Amino acid sequence: MPDAASADASNVSLDELPSNRFELELEFVQSLASPAYLHYLATSGILNQKQFLDFLRYLRYWKQPQYAKYLSYPHCLYFLDLLVPPDDDDGTNSNNNTTTASDSGETFRREMTQVQFRNFVHEQQFYSWQYRSARLYGRGKRQEDEKK
């Protein structure tokens, strides 16, 4: 979790931060895995507020392995990148990227206001989990059934 530097950036002293900050941020970042919640944030206008977008950028630290290991819903990191795409911090040329430089997550945030898009995202998430489960745990057949 970012240290005092992040607290200084928001003009909040470390004494004022809640003692359960880790749990609160873990719970919130995982809530981003829910297309229904993202739809709520989009339709309420919260996703267009600069302070909220800055908070989402701050939450990118959850992508680091020492924090990501606590996540139960890894899709939240994918949606976090769609909401506020990562900056080109590594010095690579962004011209190789297929997305336009002007799209800083605005398209995804705008589309999430549509119920049809929310349902589409939810379906795709389900298919992804279904595919992953089949690959990790098999297709649900018992070994005796396969021998017949």
What does this structure look like?
The chain has 148 residues and is mostly helical. Helix content is 55%, strand content 0%. It is built from 9 helices and no strands. Helix 3 (35-43) runs antiparallel to helix 8. The protein is globular, with a radius of gyration of 19 Å. The termini are far apart. Mean pLDDT is 81; it is low at 90-102.
Which stretches are low in confidence, meaning pLDDT under 50 for 5 or more residues running? 90-102
Overall body shape:
globular
Which band does the percent of strand residues land in? under 5%
How many H/I helical runs?
9
Overview features:
about 150 residues, 9 helices, mainly alpha
Write the layout of secondary structure elements.
Elements: H1 4-9, H2 21-31, H3 35-43, H4 50-58, H5 65-68, H6 75-83, H7 106-111, H8 115-137, H9 143-147
Helix pairs in contact: 3-8
Short description:
The chain has 148 residues and is an all-alpha fold. The chain has helices spanning 4-9, 21-31, 35-43, 50-58, 65-68, 75-83, 106-111, 115-137, 143-147. The protein is 55% helix and 0% strand.
